[in-house]
Specification:
The protein has about 200 residues and is mostly helical. The chain has helices at about 10-20, 20-45, 50-75, 90-100, 105-130, 135-160, 165-185. The chain has a single domain, classed as Ferritin, core subunit, four-helix bundle (Ferritin, Up-down Bundle). It contains seven helices and no strands. Helix 4 crosses helix 7 (about 165-185) and helix 5 (about 105-130) packs across helix 7. It starts with 10 loop residues before the first helix and ends in a 12-residue tail after the last helix.
């Protein structure tokens, strides 16, 4: 459904919910900020790719709007944004991809595609299985744009590179993503594992 090789177990939702929804919301807010920054960096470093320059400002704006929604929900619940910490998920993807990289741009587009896919999968699980139904509705509302971003990044990669290298690198990065996410520890984070 999401083009991923590892399916997050449904039990992840209850385990993350038990760790604390305020921490999860804070992490999610930071994910949205990082996503907006990634969009801006992609534009700044790839000015010769017209489709990137034209497509990604809207995505960056949506990511910032999502940040505002999540941060407002966090405050409404009596929480506050915690200090940003590094993401073992994103760090694992970047480190793993660098070892076999042939194109930085292709990897950035495909990793963005996979990160958005993983986020969409997690939002789907949260929307369906959170006991907190108010928060479940928030995640239900965020899913469509997350899925649209996933599709956009794959299309951008397919526009910029020949079909076979894109397909081959996507398979490699899907395998890497599955390995990284399956080994992550359980934390109150959108991109945590079950261990």
């Amino acid at each position: 459904m999401f083009g991923l090789l590892y399916d997050t177990p449904v039990e992840w939702v209850a385990r993350v919910e038990a760790l604390g929804l305020l921490a999860l919301l804070s992490d999610h807010a930071h994910c949205e900020l990082k996503a907006a920054a990634t969009m801006q960096a992609l534009i700044a470093k790839n000015c010769d790719h017209e489709r990137i320059v034209q497509s990604l400002p809207e995505v960056a704006q949506e990511e910032l709007q999502h940040f505002q929604l999540v941060e407002e929900e966090l405050r409404r619940r009596g929480g506050r944004l915690a200090e940003q910490t590094s993401s073992p998920y994103a760090d694992g993807l970047q480190k793993g991809a660098a070892a076999t990289r042939t194109s930085l741009l292709l990897d950035r587009l495909l990793l963005s595609h996979l990160i958005e896919a993983r986020s969409a999968e997690r939002f789907h699980l949260l929307a369906q299985h959170l006991e907190d139904r108010d928060l479940a509705q928030l995640y239900q509302g965020l899913m469509p744009s997350e899925s649209a971003h996933r599709v956009l990044f794959l299309r951008l990669a397919q526009d910029a590179f020949p079909a076979e290298p894109v397909a081959q690198r996507l398979r490699e990065l899907q395998e890497l993503e599955a390995e990284v996410v399956s080994r992550l520890p359980l934390e109150a984070r959108i991109h945590s594992g079950m261990a």
